[in-house]
Amino acid sequence: MDPETIQPLLEALARATDSISADVIAVDGGMPLVSWGSAASAGVKGKDITVMRDAIRAITAEVAGHADAVPVEHTTPAGYTILATKVAYRDFVGSICLVRLDGASYRAKDRELLSVSAQLCAAVMEAGEITDQHGRLDALVTYVAAELMGVTARDLAETLFRVISELGRYFGADTCFLRHNDPELQASVLVDEWPRRLDVPDPDPLGIVPWDTDDPIFSMVRDQREPFITRPSDGQLSYQERVRAGSGVPEVSLATVPLIHDDTTLGVLGLIHFGDRIWTRAEVRALRAIASLLVQLDARVAAEESLHHQAYHDELTGLWNRRAFVEDLNAVLEADPRAPLAVLFADMDRLKTVNDVLGHTVGDSFIQAVAQRLRDSVRPNDVVARLAGDEFVIVLHEIGSTSAAERAARRILDRVAEPLEVGGHAISRSASIGVVVNGDMPSTVDELLGNADVALLEAKERGGDSVVVFNDDLRSKLLVRADLELRLRSAISNNEMRLYFQPEFDLRDGRMTGVEALVRWQHPERGLLAADAFISVVEEINLSAELGRWVLEEACRQLASWKRTSPVPPPLVRVNISAGELISADFVGFVATLLSRYGLAPAELGIEITESTVMREIDDVQATLNGLRGLGVTLAIDDFGTGYSSLAQLKQLPVDILKIDRSFVSALAESSGDRAIVAAIVRLAEAFNLTTVAEGVEDPAAVTTLLDLGCYRAQGFFMSKPLPAQVVLEQARNPGVPLRMM
To answer: A Pfam family matched by this chain, by name (predicted)?
Structure first.
């Protein structure tokens, strides 16, 4: 049958009847002789295609048995509608068959069109347009190519079985099989066979056959390059015996063609006929072409699996990445929104030290070792994924209570904290874990991850090396944080930010020596909030630069206002600047613009940056500090004593003031250790010609001790709490008595 003659007819028929495919198929075959359209291209996948093909064969057998060409309609279990009618001419008996996906019945007009098309097919056959064997073999190869075109890794196994079953039927074989060469096993492995044996021996002599077997045929498949044919009369007794042991068939004829890629034999495609059979050259050529298609499929699927692995796995550890974790947990929750599971968010404590001291290569090896330890600490059905850096997330399935989840998390925590040998170093690092249990109310993946993250942050705030389970208190904290994040984005533009100013005094005469600008937020519902209540959220949502510049400009504006309205304004205003602001490209220019805009002398503005930030970013901030020193702006290191700066580092910084951290001042009168530290800082400052300012002075004993140690300037609640701008001038107008005497 000439496809070029019939295909236009089938296309017109399928379109007129709203069908996805139209086939002319023989009753004893399976492969369409001529076809238009396909189930696969219409979106039918996997087992549904097999069900549809079986239904087409069944309806073909049914109509072929009818005396007359009467259309018959069936509905498959999957809901597809099939309409077929008999086509017969001389030795050919089969059907012309339509398939539609919507499950609706065909109309009377559709049946009439089908009957007319069947008559036209018979007329073409009668006109002598029946193809020879070569033409049918070409159609077979084309059919297999179409079958394999849209195959993915997910439906590969089902499609391969469908193809070898079609080959078996087409060639009238009793068995068709596909075998794979496995270099690790050094063996030929059965991938699939048609029909599948009902009684498979254990062990199966045909399942895994070593290459070093005495059987010459199986030993040949390792490096087979050409098609191989054997018949009962060829004397391959060991092969015939192996087949007899595996299937019970006394003797067979075999045709195999190798699957070759880049001079490597990947496996073989084979067909077996019980008894004797002659394989023609045309048939073997067709099998070789099909083997080539299978090799192309294998390469494409391997590439797809590689891309899929890269898309769903972390490159460093091989664990699932965030995408894989989210999709898997989504699927679990969609199947059962109340699934008994716990999500653990784990983060290593102080890992940066490992990278800084031992290098990132050792740090990466340590992360790999931690990943393996986490994997070993949970059950096979639990999930471990790496989200980023040293952050891991774990899903413990079949966890029904908070206490069970907490016990499991503590066990994991203890396991992770055990020393690891990495790159010749014994490394021990604790971790923090936040836990959330899927409760009575269904949760989304985002909710579970978010809640676990909140619990993790709480564990970090407790100093690390701890497990925190998400609860109602943390839920309230989360709601507060969400409210802060939502409102903060518009707080600056809505004029909700305020500046308070904490005075700094000379302890010898009570004179105000300056003020430090402290940001407050006039929250619409919660009232005036100190920076501690919202500054971490500002940093997380990347508002630090915007807020920092607002604070700096507002402080300059306020000082200019004080200078216009009072004969004794504060001598200077200090503003704490984050590292991110300090290293921005135009920061020095921005400060210069503010000084000019508000008519301030450079010495009237002080810039503070914490010691820990300076030490962490010393190379980056050096140029900016030099630029600010060039303007004449006063520079101070805040929280000094906590950042572990060295004398060499301190020497190269162009700063004027060291502000002693409050942790050394709060118990100064009682703690000999704190007194020793403060004394050392004061001597260090004197050596570098720097001024010291003590923070957090809370009582008169601290004032006395500071004066005795030579630190003459301080700020703290003992002298004054932070004040609104209008109250600051009262302090400035009324110099106090020496604070030692208060």
So the answer is: GAF
